[in-house]
Amino acid sequence: MALCLGHPQHGYYMTRDPFGQAGDFTTAPEISQVFGELIGIWCAQVWQSLGKPPRFSLVELGPGRGTLMQDALRASRKIAGFADTVQIHLVEISPVLRKVQEKAVGPAQWHGSISTLPHQPSIIIANEFFDALPVKQYEQENGLVYERVVGLQDGKLGFGRIEAPSIKPFGKDGIFEISHARLHAAVTLGQVLKAFGGASLIIDYGHRKSAMGDTLQAMKDHQFCNITDSPGEIDITSHVDFEQLGVGFASGRAHVHPVITQAEFLNAMGLSLRGEALARKLEGQDREDFHQALKRLADDTEMGQLFKVLAATSPGLATPFPFEDA
Ligand code: SAH
Question: Which residue has the CA at smallest separation from atom 3 of ligand 1?
């Protein structure tokens, strides 16, 4: 998965801009500007509760086309002081997407990994970043645990398995996914928040509680396809286990708030108010399309329930709205 997506020469993200109607998939910031704007307001609110630090990083992990950051910055400009002190840091492996981001966002500092983020208060956002970090799949059959692996079968890539005696059985047979890459990223981010202050907002599709199941998936032209077909030409992701992610942030010593759905987050942040204000400027089909886009973001049958939002903060920081501690 890591090679298919990130190989310097042949990796999926390294060679293309995969977003939108003409690409392979569409993400929330590309659906409506309101998504990024509400996140911008969230960031400004966190910055205020951090005591408006005179220097701070606004970090985005895997910014894609830079649309979210562009919309977030536009919305947060209305909060006095925020735009004057913000330093933009973008964590991105793709040279193609870095160029697109530079056009959208303007001056920023790029990083190839989370490990080089600056030592200062940080507000860290990520939409559909963690699903792209590689997972391992373990399979339990008759009480024995195997790791699923990919190899050559008759000249084509195919799935096989090897024994994984170091993994404790799960209690029942089936597939269980563990992402060391995601866990490691979450621990590092938690450490940054603890050491320098700040908050992190992670949005992705996935489940609140760890659960058995095979969620590895591949996409091309907005259709699901075979994971081992056309390596480097298709997007490969898996659902994010937010319980594991929370464990990562907590072991980095950040405070993790109970996960909410994308619908809960967007509705509480004022999706319909902002939507109405923008819709008033539109007419006919444009207005209809705009309302459809907002529905896509927040409806239960679309992205509203499948997508979850995790917030982690430096210890002692007020719980950021609309999160609530149990
Ligand atoms: N956040 C954007 C894009 C999501 S796609 C949006 O919502 O539209 C995933 C993004 O993460 C892409 O920008 C991709 O190039 C980047 N990416 C994938 N793996 C990465 C890694 N290991 N390190 C840094 N960036 C990565």
Answer: 64
How remote is the CA of residue 2 from the centroid of ligand 1, in Å? 12
**Gap between the Cα atoms of 122 and 111, Å rounded:** 15
Distances (CA, A) of 166 to 140, 180, 193, 211: 13, 15, 32, 20
Nearest CA to ligand 1 atom 21: 93
pLDDT per residue, tens digit, the chain (326 aa), is 999 999 999 999 999 999 998 999 999 999 999 999 999 999 999 999 999 999 999 999 999 999 999 999 999 998 999 989 999 999 999 999 999 999 999 999 999 999 999 999 999 999 999 999 999 999 999 999 999 999 998 999 999 999 999 999 988 999 999 999 999 999 999 999 999 999 999 999 999 999 999 999 999 999 999 999 999 999 999 999 999 999 999 999 999 999 999 999 999 999 999 999 999 999 999 999 999 999 999 999 999 999 999 999 999 999 999 999 98
Sequence letter at residue 92: E
CA of 30 to the centre of ligand 1 (A): 14
- Rounded distance, CA 292 to CA 288, Å? 6
d(CA 68, ligand 1 centre) in Å: 12
**Within 10 Å of residue 38's Cβ, how many Cβ atoms?**
23
What token pair was written down for 94? 């793709």
Q: Smallest Cα–Cα separation from 125: which of 53, 179, 184, 71?
A: 71
Rounded Cα–Cα distance for residues 50 and 47 (Å): 5
Tokens of 211: 């659960």
Pocket of ligand 1 (CB under 6 A): 5-6, 13, 19, 27, 29-30, 62-64, 68, 91-94, 97, 127-129, 132-133
Cα of 104 from ligand 1 centre, angstroms: 15
